[in-house]
What does this fold into?
Amino acid sequence: MSVGLQIDLVGWFALALILVALYGLNSEKGERSGSTLWHKPAIGLLSAALLLMLVSVLWTSDGSNVPLAIVMVLLGIVAAPLSSRYRSSRYRDARGSSPQRTLREGILSGLSLITIGTGLSVALLGLTGWFDMDRDAFTWDIRLVSVSSEFIGVWTFAAGLMLWLRLNDYLPQSSPGRNQKRVGLAVLALALVLSGLSVLFPAYASALMIVVAVLALELGALSALGVAETRVARVLGQHTGLIGAAIAMLGYVQASLFLLSMGGLIVAAAIHYLRGAMAFNQARRRRTDF
Amino acid sequence: MDPVIAAYTVLLAVALGLSGFLRGDARRRGRGLLMAATLSGFIVVAAASALVNAVSVPDLILTSLAVFFSAQAATTSFSLLWREISSTRQARGSVPDSDHREDTSA
It folds into this structure.
């Protein structure tokens, strides 16, 4: 069952661009010799790859939905600075913490915005897959992909939203207890069992899907509220890895090797991140200024 | 698509990514997270491809919302990564700082 995306020819070139860009972003040589020569072109290469893929997707379609797609992409680009600027202007006055900590939380808040957006779109795409399926040609692997992307998407969306609310002081600071973790594990196990049931028994699948979505919402809230504030970045890293897995599954449904390998790369980056400590350059920057 | 081919591709991509990211500086893993977020912005491609292939009205609504949110996420991630890269120059020379300790102690 392939939805489309006959663009793997262009995808190879885009993948090559992305790999070169990642190589450039990871390179240390430039920084030691005193120039960051390779980093800005690397970002250019990444955005060029993204544009190339978008254009080729729009080019190979039959053209009826292309204006809608372009308008939606432009609206999303316009909405991004609006949603993140609101926060940073409000935040400084709200809390008298150190400027470095403020910057670090600003980055984390941006990351949770990214998590919200990608989680929502993964959930919506999973939902589309669910509605779209012809019930007769509804094989178990497509059902599995649909259920798990729904689950991952809603979970990630809820966790990102709760983290964003926490970082912006809309929620009171909570201190995690031991019980919270236990409840979270129980909800996770219940959700996994229910998703397994909805894959095995398609007759009750729609009702089970709703329950799974509600459980995923609750799980997201639990996993975001039940962590200390110093571990927020770690939770975001986990959810980025989950999004990578969801992208790989979408690539399986859409029969695109490009999306499969992107998902693999994201999972690798998240694993690599989760194994170490973290430091942001931009949080370190202003320390000497203030 | 053949599940075996899909599994091989994912496995190879994970291995390639892991070996590639190992080259990065251990003190700057924050950038690794930003890079992962930027790569996950490529979901806008999947969303756009679902949108141009959608036929019914509910599909159109769902997928266009997905394109909207993923484009927003992609833009945010690119701007965050850009800010991180731009501030590398200023950060060089300053001492390794405390947001290390903050994370490892937890």
User: Anything to note?
Assistant: Chain B is about 75% helix and 0% strand. Chain B touches chain A through 94 residues (CB under 8 Å). The mean pLDDT of chain B is 78.
